[in-house]
Amino acid sequence: MSGQSKRTRGSDRTQTVHGLLRRYFPILAWGREYSSRTLLNDLIVAAIVTVMLIPQSLAYALLAGLPAQVGLYASMAPLVIYAVFGTSRTLAVGPVAVSSLMTAAAAETIAAQGSPEYLGAAIALALISGLLLLVMGLLRLGFLANFLSHPVISGFITASAIQIAASQCAPLLGIRADGHSFLDVFVSLARNLGETHPYTAAIGLASLVFLFWVRHSLKPLLRGLGVGERAADILAKAGPAAAIVTTTSVVWGFGLAAHGVRIVGAVPQGLPRLALPPLDPALWTKMLVPALLISIVGYVESISVALTLAAKRRQRVDPDQELVALGMANVGAAVSGGFPVTGGFARSVVNFEAGAETPAAGAFTAAGIALATLFLTPLLYFLPNATLAATIIVAVLSLVDIGALKRTWAYSKADFAAMAATILATWAEGVEAGLVVGVGLAIFLHLYASSRPHIAVVGQLPGTAHFRNVARHTVVTDPEILSLRVDESLYFPNARFIEEFIHEAVAANSAIRHVILECPAVNVIDASALESLETINRRLKDGGIRFHLSEVKGPIMDRLKGTHFLEALTGKVHLSQFDAVSSINAELARRTLQARRL
Amino acid sequence: MSGQSKRTRGSDRTQTVHGLLRRYFPILAWGREYSSRTLLNDLIVAAIVTVMLIPQSLAYALLAGLPAQVGLYASMAPLVIYAVFGTSRTLAVGPVAVSSLMTAAAAETIAAQGSPEYLGAAIALALISGLLLLVMGLLRLGFLANFLSHPVISGFITASAIQIAASQCAPLLGIRADGHSFLDVFVSLARNLGETHPYTAAIGLASLVFLFWVRHSLKPLLRGLGVGERAADILAKAGPAAAIVTTTSVVWGFGLAAHGVRIVGAVPQGLPRLALPPLDPALWTKMLVPALLISIVGYVESISVALTLAAKRRQRVDPDQELVALGMANVGAAVSGGFPVTGGFARSVVNFEAGAETPAAGAFTAAGIALATLFLTPLLYFLPNATLAATIIVAVLSLVDIGALKRTWAYSKADFAAMAATILATWAEGVEAGLVVGVGLAIFLHLYASSRPHIAVVGQLPGTAHFRNVARHTVVTDPEILSLRVDESLYFPNARFIEEFIHEAVAANSAIRHVILECPAVNVIDASALESLETINRRLKDGGIRFHLSEVKGPIMDRLKGTHFLEALTGKVHLSQFDAVSSINAELARRTLQARRL
After folding, report:
1. Mean pLDDT over residues A261-274, rounded?
2. What are residue B460's DSSP bridge partners?
3. For residue A132, pLDDT beyond 70
């Protein structure tokens, strides 16, 4: 952080107990202003969000290969903890689709779905992920999330969403699909399509059509019927709950479970017991990388949602404290038997649009889910898995962003390559491989691009003090002077390129006596580039050529002053390219004059 | 490649048979002008270099854990092949210290020193390394070498040189040293110091003192005695040969081999037979990464020597063709029973200073070594290993660059960290770990640094059109306008930082109605940054703030024109920061006026 932000943050960092408390417990700030009006408002919001969250929580638990109640557990403690530590007023944390998929992918490497070891691995993932986020927050390592470039994260989410949607076709149609990678699952689905279970498929497809209709057409319809904007919005979000109530009643009423429709079955009633996940070092070692990836992907989604919502009301979100809050929320999820959670887009938007004013709304939502866990789970017995599958498919398909692929292709082929590689690797080798390949390729392509910066040979625009690319403008050049403008910072990926460029340019033209490097776009000169500049200077000197710099920025000049380079430089550092050329010409003229006199 | 270089190279790329032949066979260029005068000169140079190379070749073979003759084999075919394919007139290829150490480190993972499998692995390394270099050259992948930043390569060479010198203390003193890592060897040496073999140590230390004296004091002494500059230089380089002749005679004359002085022993007479190394897929898979690292480290050393020497005579070196030439040289080394080679600094400088004019000098040197292999090997029987150890120690200690550590520390802590990590990892875990850690850390620190660019809040210098940092200058600012200058390209490592910076700055000041981002130092806007700019624009719009850009470079503007961003932008793109502020003020004034009129 620098500039204004550094000063603003400086005050937060005041190392008084009071300052630290306010920094790490944002609840102390908003809690003080909490009024009975806010309380009533937050309670209403909580009721709305609870209705939306129950089906989502169950569905994502099944997506993660876990018992349904684990989804409810993961939607209680994290919400309360986030209310204490979070800086966003409206973020709603809980299980989300992509991290549920990542949880399943990681836990499957430990044990088979349904085993206690599988559940233990999922809970351990939440704990490790929580601790990693906490450490990142306390050490201010949030920048690690930057390594996930937009195209990589966008490609990853699109690939994951399509993979999730495909995998959910199995419960939706009542068929089996095997395999870990998307390709395996896809082939297996296509092969088993003939075994579709008619009742299950009827329920699943009806739910799917209903949910798509709710999402796309219910709100305009309600508005047309004279329902208010906000009420229409909220009613439309209750679609999944309505689908669950209806299909559960149908399965119960017609006894479809006896006809082979798979149902959720007995969900244990009551709140989770507090416990630690297995502290097996071998398990932790294996879960470390998946937990790191889950943390970073979750954080990127969460902070982006938080900033977007905060901006609408000009509120502040502290990215480092958000890491702490998400870390604590995940630790809370783990000790209360849940799996990894993060700030989700859909649930946060509902929370925001329903009018949440403080994180207390989240805590009340947790209370709502606790009540449901205590009293409503018997009602979920006949809930068909196909309905939950339909809920997931509708939710994740909204994450698929084909437009982003097109836009990226049009804007930058390198970014598109990273995006496409992420998608293909995710499908072929799984979520971890997808992220690693994408991040690796993005870094590689970035270094590759900066390894061959744009270097223009420049000349003077006649009658002005301006210098422009000789290839684009009609300019005046001096055969003895080679003026080069490099449009990139000078650092290790391109240091040798610049050496070779100048070597080549000078070897190709024996008239050259001066080389001037114009540096207005050079923001950094690292140790590699400094050494290259020294080498260029020495080699040019060996060839009887003087080396100059021009338009070097202040901070770079400050650093160069401490080095041997400026002493060794055969030419000078000029304030502007015009000064450089003028002073060289003046010197040449003076020498010619002296030579004539002698 | 761009600008002038692109045009210059364009002609090389002419896809005629003639052009291709000249490109890939530089011998066709210099061979045509070859005269009897050049021939005589090159023959004299070859005689001088041969005398220097024989001890070096033997010593580096022993350093690589190989039989002495392998060093001679590696100094024949590669020199001839480089003469055909190389673009440097004076580069001398052969075994060098660092790649010999790397060869030993890799081959030791396959088999014990002295076994045929160990030799096979070393030869396979040369072949794989050669093929990799060839592919890199043909596909123009030389930029891969850029990933080795100067501090990393410098740290690596210093660490390797110290490690080599330490390991050679064992043969120098006639003691044993075990272990793979430097730390193991060091501990083992210290423990066995009591078992020093007196005769061996006497020969070793005497050679060491003599060679140091030759290197530092012989040349001034000879010059004082009236010997010419060049002759003094050449005589000083013959030091190792003199040490070998003397100590071999002493060992033979006094029968010291019977007293336990270890000698080279029987070296097979005659030229190597052409053969392929073992084509075992498991061996190749294991040798792939070491071969890649040997190739890149070798290439970096070689191209740097070639460019430095070429610059002294304003000759040209083509970095891509150098990859081809080194690749062919290594393939040649492999099929003639040698181990990895590269362009060495010491031998190339001797070649240059002795007056080599064409690569033919190298070919004649190869002939000289061939003659030695045919007729002189019996004379090497009594050559003590201690003398070769002394030769290696003196040679490698000149590679240790403690000054570079100090300079890097003073100039850049990040670069120093990469350097120190390379050294420590090389010593603790070996050469491959050292390079991987160094490169990884350098890339990480680079991304870290660019993840938090300098962003200045700027204001207008009173009475001028210039805008400067508010923290450094007395400037005029408008409370409704936030002007920011970002001193870095906008791309994924910093895209989110800029989002957060603007979010923070705007949330901290509710008076702001316009944000202007001044972009004179922005050389690139990648897809991540574009998305961040769109997000910033959308969030500012939600908060009732307009977003402007100023001083956007032409090529960036060209790319932005194809995107949705410019349409969505709530403000404008202004030519200069002054234009931006003026036009916003003009609009504000017009509105105020309109409001008053109404």
Report:
1. 87
2. B467, B476
3. yes
